[in-house]
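Hi L.,

You mentioned the student needs an example of a multi-chain input paired with its predicted structure. This one should do, with 322 residues in total across all chains.
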Amino acid sequence: MKILVNGAWRETSATELSPVLEELGYGDSVVTTAVNGEFVAVGVRPRTRLAEGDRVEVLAPMQGG
Amino acid sequence: MLQLYATPLRSRLLLGTARYPSPAVLTEAVRASRAEVVTVALRRESSGERAGQGFWSIIRELGVRVLPNTAGCHSVKEAVTTAHMAREVFGTPWIKLEVIGEDDTLQPDVFGLTEAARVLCAEGFEVFPYTTEDLVVAERLLAAGCRVLMPWGAPIGSGRGLNNLFGLRALRAHFPDVPLIIDAGIGVPSHAAHALELGFDAVLINTAVAQARDPAQMAAAFAQAVEAGWAARLAGPIEPRDLAAPSTPVIGTAFRG
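Structure written out for the whole complex:
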């Protein structure tokens, strides 16, 4: 299915958020996630099912003022 | 000693981590500033570049406390979600709450800010709201549960210093026991010293250090200014007056009478 990851369309074969992140190369990264604007805690990722067209945000620490 | 949400801090200078020419210069500047708190943010991570991973390891090596922000959020919903995400990644209840209302001045949307502060304080966050010098807004933020306020000196990155001295003095006088941190708009160390002399508890600096020709040297200059300003505050500055007052005693002046 196709989902929107950080604003770009990506094709994925997995359906839950955790394996999707693995598939996209975020496996061992320190990241935090949201799906369709809602925060998804790390412990909830394995049972968070994604659907076609879902908007996934994958954020990491960055410089800030 | 400065206390922010029961955390004692020796330094009254908080430093932003954005806009430095390189990670090495950022590291030098943080060390030179002697800041114990640095602000950080969350941004989209590319699985290829992994820029955030490198940045995060630099910050952890510095051994400083982090104050995550919600920069770039324009709504209560965005700010609250970003705060949740920041708490997970950074492992701190501290959040520098920004809800931007106007893009040219980056002026806070104080209505959204107070609402987001209410939600986050109720959830146990320790909120540092980026606000204006408005007394009524400050009152609402305190009622929402904020125990620290971060009024702007001038628009973010403008370097204009303390734009509304009258308003800032009034805010300080109105809330004598609330830690007040001047956030945004400070351009040079004398602005920071002035803020501390007026009784503000601390300053948060980013652009003025990061964009200086020599950020580490400027960070050290700000550290000295903040210490001098606070020492002057404790020493009790004189009040300005309109007429001259001779500093040398007049009694016994020669050639008179």
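You could point out the following to them. Residues 215-235 of chain B form the longest helix (21 residues). The two ends of chain B are 54 Å apart (CA to CA).

Best wishes,
N.
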